[in-house]
Amino acid sequence: MMHNNCNLNIEEHLKYVDTLVKAGIIDDNTGKSIKQNMTAEFSAQQALKTATGGLYAPQNAAQPVQPLNLADSEFLRARVCLLNYLKNLDISLSERDLKEIEAVVLELEKGAMQRQLANSNELAKERLITGALNGNSLKTVPGKTFTREEIAKMSTAEFIKNEPAINYQLQNGLI
Q1: Which whole number is the average pLDDT over 111-129?
Q2: Distances from the Cα of 30 to the Cαs of 13, 73, 92, 133, 173, in angstroms?
Q3: pTM attached to this predicted model
Q4: 31 C-beta neighbours (distance < 10 Å), count
Q5: Which end of the chain has the lower number of beta carbons within 10 A, N or C?
């Protein structure tokens, strides 16, 4: 049974569900199902309150949150600056709080890695064009002729390693 500590009465809850249906946020069948569950839950809560003389308290009423030892987090140990920052805030965090922080940090790290990769690729393209136009390439024929597809799939390190051969091939129309 789902319990909540909401100040709205059942009629207000049902009107809210109707509003969600009218707005197209949920479909009619889902709305009917939610309303049936809410009515059953409300009736069960009312019966329990009556049976206990109004001393009813939901089973999942807010439990005190156990503070989390930040140093136990493998995620934070790998990010010492963030760990030190959170320790210096002098606040207690729950495991849920830490999971939310992890999600934000991982998204930031993902974005930073994507930008770094894009910047590296741009640098490699610039070097390719500059080298081909300035004639800074090999003067002897390389053993391997690269295709555009192979070049596009190369990592930055592979490209830099093969850059002179690629420039030579570009200058001489081999690619």
Answers
A1: 80
A2: 14, 40, 39, 64, 64
A3: 0.35
A4: 18
A5: N
